[in-house]
Structures are given as C-alpha cells and as structure tokens.
Design goal:
Elements (H helix, E strand, L loop, with lengths): L2 H35 L6 H19 L2 H6 L2 H27 L4 H28 L6 H20 L1 H7 L6 H20 L8 H46 L11 E8 L7 E9 L2 E9 L3 H17 L7 H15 L5 E9 L4 E7 L4 E5 L4 E5 L2 E2 L13 E4 L4 E6 L15 H11 L5 H15 L10 E8 L1
Parallel strand pairs: 5-8
Antiparallel strand pairs: 1-11, 2-3, 3-4, 4-5, 5-9, 6-7, 6-10, 10-11
Helix pairs in contact: 1-2, 1-9, 2-4, 2-9, 4-5, 4-6, 5-6, 6-7, 6-8, 8-9, 10-11
Amino acid sequence: MTVEAQLASLLRGEVLNIVASTFFLFIGLIALSIAAIRPRSSAKLLLWLGIWSGMYGIQELLQSDPVVRSLPSAIQAARESVLVLFAYSMIVVATLTFLELTLGLMHRLLQVFLAVNLALAVLAMVLFVVSRSQDSLLVFNEALVIVLLVTLILTLSIPALSRRFLVVAQHRVLTLGTFLFAAQALFVNVVRPFQVNVPRIYNTVGFAIFLLAIGYTGMDIMLRDERRLLALDDELTIARQLQFSILPEQTPRIAGLDIAAVYQPMSAVAGDFYEFIIGDERHAGFLIADVSGHGVPAALIASMIKVATQTANGCASNPAQLLQSLGNVLNTNARGQLVSAAYLWIDMTSRTATYSAAGHPPLIRWRRTDSTFSRVESNGLLFGINAASEYPVCSFPLVAGDRYLLYTDGITEPENQAGQQFGERRLEQIMRDTEGRRASELAQFLQTEIRAWQPSNMAQQDDLTLILIDVL
C-alpha cells in the first residue's frame, strides 16, 4: 500500500474527530471575534471561552495521526511540547472563564485556585524540559479539574449558592450543559476499568455541549449588559433634558448690560449650575455654582441648588444673605458633596455691584478705561462642610467698558499635552486681546481656545460654565 493510500485510510478513520476539532476552532474564532467587537468587561467571558475552545481544537488535531503527518516537520517536532503545554494550561484558561461567572467569596477562591493551576503548569513544563516527562504531574492536574467541575456543579445545584456567587440569575442552560458534560465524563471513567472502548467522539460531544452552554451564558450576560446600557443611555438623555430645563432659557435684558453665558457639560449631565435672578429691567443677580465630582450625583445637587435659589429670591439684592440661605439647604442635604458658588448683584440705577462667594474662583474684572485686569475675591466656606460661615461682601462701582467674568474651574484647569493648565494668565491675555468683541463673541472664542488647548484625542476634562457681563 502506498503512502498516499495509507494516509487516505487513516483520514477515513479520523474524519469525525477532524471535523469536531475544526468545529472547536470555529467556535473559538467566533467567540474571539464577538469579544473583539464588543470590548466590554462582559465580553471577557467570551474571550477566555474562545481561547479555551481553540486550544481544545488544536489539541485534538495534534492527536490525529493523519493531520500530524501532513504538517511541516518543524511543527511535528514541536507537537509533543504543545500537547504538554495544553494539557496543563487548559485548566488555567477554564478557571479564568469561570472567574467571569462568579462573585464574592467564590471569586476569591477561584483566584487562589488559579494561582495553584499556574504554579502546577509552570512546574510541569520545567519537568518536561528537564526530564521529558509528560505525565509526572498529570494526576494532580486531573485532581484540580475534578475539583473545579465539582465546585461548579455544587454552585449551580444549590440555589442559595448560585444566587450568592453567580453573576447570572437564569442559568438553566449552563446547568444543563454542565450536568451533561459531567455525566459523560463520569460514564467514561466508570467503564474504563471494564476495558470498554469509548470512542473519542463521545468526549468531544460532551465537551462541545459544555462549551456551548457557557457560550450561551456569556452571550446572555453581554446582551443583558447591552440592554442595561441602552436603558441607562435613555435615562441619561432624559436627565440631560431635565437638567437643561432648570437652566435659564435665555440671557436677561438689563438696561446698560451685554450678557452672555456658556454651559458645556463634560458628560451627559453636569455638576455646574448658573442662574439669573431678575429684579426688574435695571436690577439682576448672577449666580454660578460648581458641585464637586461629575455625573448624576453632582447633577442632583445642582438641581437642589435651583430649588434652594428659588426660595432665596427674596434676598437677591443681598449676596451674603442669599449665600447663607443656599448654605443652610446644602449643608443639610448635600450628603458629603462640596459646592462652590459665586453671586454678583448688579444695580444699574446706582451703577454699583455687590459680590460674595463660597470657596469659588475669583470674579474676573477687565477695566477698559485703564486696561487693568483684576480678581475680586470675597470668599466664605464651601457649601457642604456643614459649618457656619460668614460670606463677606465686596461692593464696587460699575464703569462703562467694564467686563466681568464669573466662571467655574473648567475654564482655567484644562491641561495640554505637557500637563500645563490653561490658567488665569492665558485667560487674562485673551480678555486683553478681545476687548473690542461683544460678550457673546468672547464667550464662544473662549470655548474654542480651551478646546484647542486640550489634546485633540482627549475628551473634555471638566464641566465648563461661564457668565460674561459687559457694562455699556
């Protein structure tokens, strides 16, 4: 019989195992592709499952004589080393897979189990390199496999354990697949002493059912997370709409003033807040606030400031009293969140302004008449410290050509590629260079300059809010 005929005869006997091995490689490729397309933490289960399935498929192919004979000689020479590596490291990948399914104490125990697996795999490879012994630690490896499988079966079987230690609430498919695989493995080991020849394809089918059950569970977890994230996106969209609804719809028309405002959240919702308190066409208050942190918690406190401001409208002409009123509300209800605020009251009848702040960046004043740039500071304690504070008031005349800027630290703190902050000096230079522009034009120009200052590949670093007031 020719070599070709012998190879064809061997292939006919191995065709089922070759097809099954190819199936495992295909499943591994599909799992890895999905994990790459959906690079979220929930896809890590599919990542490890793909590696596990691929390793099993390669291992089965390398145990098939016709496949090995058709391989290049270099791969044939490495075959034994690869089989030993896979024999001891496959349980490492299996443990990493199960880590993605567990919580709490079970998760921590599996981490310890993983360390033991890794140590055994390394020791086995060292012994193989030194003595060419393949089976010296195989009994320990098989014992670890049994421990891992029994642990999984017990966790799935006992509702109290599964509810407490598994990330999936519905695990019927995983339970069924695990029990079928365990039953098949038990059957093979029971009949082995009786010299019953069980075809390799039985092991392959049992393991395929097990892997598919895990894969189904991984897809279920990932799709559930996708639905949760979509629902969260919808809720954040609604929260963003609600937050914008509490902000002023337009800048007020006050005789002798040109007013502009910018509000640009870093994320869907923000911790910055601003408000106009209109007395009449010649009197107005300007409030700006910055809640520590970002996102939904900060946005909730910002909404609280809106309500607190409405209750303090009666003292709008007294900055100290208004800030004390806000502090009384926020010190009680801020729940550990700190809030800075600044308030400017303008009286165009007497052409005077009064200003006070609670731990906020200073009010910027640009005076065109003498080209001076100054910082007006009049600070009391931050809100949320839950301590009594006085809020000193600073009064000053309004002169035609004056420009005032209330802002949050998102204006001055953004950093460039070198880690340098935008800073007040750059802000001062921009105000000097743009003294002839209207307030609205300067507001938009500042936004552009701050965005250009930050690296192009970096998202906005903080909420950005400002109020510009020009005295005409």
